[in-house]
Amino acid sequence: MKKPMKPALFPLVLMLLVYSCTAEQAPAPDPGIEPTACDTAVITSAYIMTTISSKCTNGACHKGTGNFVVSDFSTLEKLKTYLNANESIFRERVTSANADMPPRGKLSEGTRDSINCWLSHGMPD
C-alpha cells in the first residue's frame, strides 16, 4: 500500500505540473513590463501567436468562421491585417485594464503588457 502524499508537498507538485505545461507553449513574458523596459524588450510574433492560439482561436472563436469572420486570428498575417485596421479596439478589448476578451478570463498583466509592447514596436516578426 502506497503512502499518501504529504499535504505540504501537494502545492509544490501542482505548481511544477502547471509550470511545465505552460513553459512548453511559449516563453513566459516578463511580468509587468514597465514602459521603459518595453523599449528594450524583444517580444516575438511566435510568442504572440502562441498566446492568441491558446486564448483566442480555441473553440469557435476568432478562427475566421461563424460570427468571428471579421476578426480572424488564425494566422499571423490575418492577425496583423486585423490589428492594422483595428488596433485601438483590440487594445481596449484585449490588453487594457478594462479588457473583456477573452471571455473566459482576461489575460495576465504580463501577457497584456507583452502584447502591448509588441504592438508598440510595430508587430515585429
Structural class: mainly alpha
How would you characterize the largest beta sheet?
none
Radius of gyration: 17 Å
Helix content class: 40-55%
N- to C-terminal separation?
A: 54 Å
What sequence of helices (H) and strands (E) makes up the elements? HHHHH
**Mean pLDDT metric:** 78
Using the alpha-carbon principal axes, give the shape: globular
Number of DSSP strands? 0
List unreliable stretches of 5+ residues: 9-25
List the total number of helices. Answer: 5
What percent strand? under 5%
3D structure, described in words:
This protein is 50% helix and 0% strand. Helix 4 packs across helix 5. It is globular. The chain starts with 9 loop residues before the first helix and ends in a 5-residue tail after the last helix. About 14% of the residues have low confidence.
